[in-house]
Design goal:
single chain; alpha/beta; six-stranded parallel β-sheet; five-stranded mixed β-sheet; 11 strands; binds nicotinamide-adenine-dinucleotide
Length: 351
């Protein structure tokens, strides 16, 4: 499929290629939708073997972002920027500033933030050339580390899951198996422990596990056994694809609700979870707290407003579950349907 066909198949508005030979910048920006507002997207810097791989990554991620912002109730669309290069070797002030000038030339159609291979310092550098950047340092009005807000949103989502499954929203009346105790997982464990819950943790980094267990008085589980833990909630907070045909039959939980992105290896896994009586919190709905926090920068950042906005994740999750029941569909399908309906009501999207 050529590029224009791929764009048209998924309803993308625009894809732009930028090149600046002076700084060796080679970059792709995909804008999936601006129906709700300017497209927001992370800037990934990565050594793609072929330009087409970078284009595909930008197209896929920008579409996913459209759904995430729509469901989160934000007035932002979906985009993605990719710089082809090694962040360790190829990144320079000249390259980032050239990127910033190109983003500026798009007007306010695209707002950039950090992602794999880029940092808050890089956003500060880009800010020298354009105002269309979020995730800058707090001294410049930035919102700081998003992971604690992603964890807070996940906690609100877990409460909605408990309510749906057991008719109560009391964190302490359930137990939790948290996979990955990096930024999001660690903050989630802290919140769960503060509420008085029993928590099991696993991480590929043993030193990290020991630190977290010492600090939060949780129980460590060998990395590969986290799926088998007899806990009420399994909370993936590490990498994607962890809900797959090997792991679903092993799960002993009643709820899967965590902050990791792209948890399902395929959409069929959502159906399999449901068939096994396990309630699934769609990842892009429950992990939107960091994005909501970031969006508050647009109005002038305030921690209080960010917390208030993030609390809406509980309401969003309840709407998803109601819709899933009403339409006899999976929670995953219900989330997509709600996002598409908002987009259709305001602008355009191809199904
Ligand atoms: P992080 O790198 O800080 O933490 C990830 C943790 O997972 C690390 O401690 C790592 O050692 C561990 N890990 C890696 N592979 C593992 C494995 N196989 N088994 C167990 N543990 C493993 O990342 P993060 O910012 O906490 O993000 C975690 C997940 O949440 C990612 O999927 C990310 O896309 C998603 N997410 C994060 C945010 C955010 O605000 N940071 C927002 C939305 C989604």
């Amino acid at each position: 499929m050529n590029l224009l066909e791929a764009m048209s198949a998924e309803g993308h508005e625009q894809i732009v290629h930028f090149s600046d030979p002076g700084s060796a910048l080679k970059c792709v920006v995909a804008i999936h939708s601006t129906a709700l507002g300017p497209a927001i997207g992370g800037l990934r810097m990565w050594t793609y073997a072929q330009e087409a791989d970078a284009e595909r990554a930008a197209l896929e991620s920008s579409r996913a972002m459209t759904y995430k912002t729509a469901l989160a109730g934000l007035n932002l669309g979906g985009g993605k920027a990719v710089i082809i290069g090694d962040p360790e070797k190829d990144k320079s002030e000249a390259l980032l500033r050239a990127f910033g000038r190109f983003i500026n030339s798009l007007g306010r159609r695209f707002i950039v933030t950090d992602d794999v291979g880029t940092t808050v310092d890089d956003m500060d550098c880009i800010r020298e050339e354009t105002a269309h950047v979020l995730g800058v340092h707090p001294v410049h009005g930035g919102s700081g580390d998003p992971s604690s807000f992603t964890a807070l949103g996940t906690l609100h989502g877990i409460r909605a899951c408990l309510e749906r499954r057991f008719g109560h929203a009391e964190i302490a009346r359930a137990s939790y198996a948290v996979q990955g105790v990096g930024g999001v997982g660690y903050h989630l464990v802290q919140l769960l422990r503060a509420a008085g819950a029993k928590v099991f943790v696993a991480d590929i980094n043993q030193e990290r596990v020991e630190q977290v267990v010492d600090e939060t008085r949780t129980e460590a589980v060998p990395m590969h056994q986290i799926y088998d833990v007899d806990a009420t909630v399994f909370a993936p907070c590490a990498m994607g694809g962890v809900i797959n045909e090997d792991t679903v039959p092993r799960l002993r939980c009643q709820i899967v609700a965590g902050g990791a992105s792209n948890q399902l290896e395929s959409n069929e896994c959502a159906t399999e979870l449901e068939q096994r009586g396990i309630l699934y919190a769609p990842d892009y709905a429950i992990n939107a707290g960091g994005l909501m926090n970031l969006a508050v920068e647009l109005e002038g950042y305030s921690d209080e407003r960010a917390r208030h906005r993030v609390s809406s994740i509980g309401r969003i999750m309840r709407r998803i579950f109601e819709r899933a029941r009403g339409d006899s569909i999976t929670s995953w399908q219900a989330a997509d349907r709600l996002a598409e309906e908002r987009l259709l009501a305001v602008g355009q999207i191809r199904r």
